């Protein structure tokens, strides 16, 4: 394991992902973790991340220099580089000489461990105020910039390395190569961490945890719960039962995808609860978005709990017990909720399907060490169909929050048809990977006049909301080709009764959220 010490910027997760892209397993630890605890984890290498602080700022995160004395290879980046420099007797000045963004780096030792095989001048991403003017004794300066005399150094004997810039960001040329040089050449690690290993390891861990007991898993139709279920199914087979609550708010073909494709690919035991009528009855007359969300969440939990207790009762009748609940919690959730170390709780877990914590089960979370892209790779490895593994995000409350106005069966059917056409055309145009998602929204309370055939119509508009995004926190509207938009518009107005207008949402997030409700 490579441990990434998180000094409190957003960079630690990115570094951990880059290390894994180099096929070396990595985990993140907070900078508040005592050094002996970090070393007790037996890391093969340690990376000190960047951070928002100046090493001279009051309350700036510090580092016990014992971390450099343990014989473990260490790579300091940005703030981590400056900490390393000061801890080992180098000089870091608050010169006011700032560098932000793309900066040319001059490599003075092209044959050095980190820079071997990379050009003498490369463009790197900087973000710092303080600058290192003298490397610690015993260190070789390997690169500089116009502003910073010491932009990289290394001590090959002690296996200590540092760069002032951010090798983990995409804007840094050769950043991944420099990181890999540290891992392979500096720390002597081999690229051995693969999704095959992950699957084997998790299967063994799940078997050890669950033993001969039984487990249940709520499937939402999303990637995470599907991959978690498939992993557990591979480990314990028929001891697992999955529950899929069909609330009638899914898109066309979606429930079938879970019921047929997923079962076909995994052979999982599936309990499908048809709860459409129940959800529609609960939603009758409700127009307020927050109220809709609350009702859908509440009904979902009730239905799931009932299904779970039925499974428990059936198992009990056979003298077995259901002790475990499978959840698709991912590594970013774990890190953001304190990494299990009891430190800063920035955001509490939001678990699959929003199941309540007081469900009386122990949790099985086979994805809690993985990033989203790794979950997709594991899904592929497990033989899940592409349609499930590469699925775009879809909100838990489903089409219920894509009908502006009251949710009725007729409106859902109409929206399902319009949505299916949009998805079909986007897929046909090869745009699925270019967009993050494309909500299709029915403005059920709005009407406009149209003319179709020889007659006047008075129908509803459909909104297309294609967005591009990296994490759904911010988003921009996708500039889709006009021909594709035209085709979608023509087909929807021709094929879907009661829709006589298609409009495009050209709002970024912020200010607009991705969904309309
Ligand atoms: P907004 O509308 O907040 O959406 O910009 C951000 C992302 O989250 C999805 N979304 C949800 N997902 N349950 C979910 O599982 C929800 O209640 C929910 N609301 C929004 C949305 O599709 C987008 O990807």
TrEMBL record:
One of its GO terms (molecular function) is GMP synthase activity. Homodimer. It comes from Actinacidiphila oryziradicis. It catalyses: XMP + L-glutamine + ATP + H2O = GMP + L-glutamate + AMP + diphosphate + 2 H(+). Pfam families: GATase, GMP_synt_C, NAD_synthase. SUPFAM superfamilies: Adenine nucleotide alpha hydrolases-like, Class I glutamine amidotransferase-like, GMP synthetase C-terminal dimerisation domain. It comes from the Bacteria. This is GMP synthase [glutamine-hydrolyzing]. Residues 193-391 form the GMPS ATP-PPase domain. The active site is at 78 (nucleophile), 166, 168. NCBIfam families: guaA_Cterm, guaA_Nterm, PRK00074.1. GO terms for cellular component: cytosol.
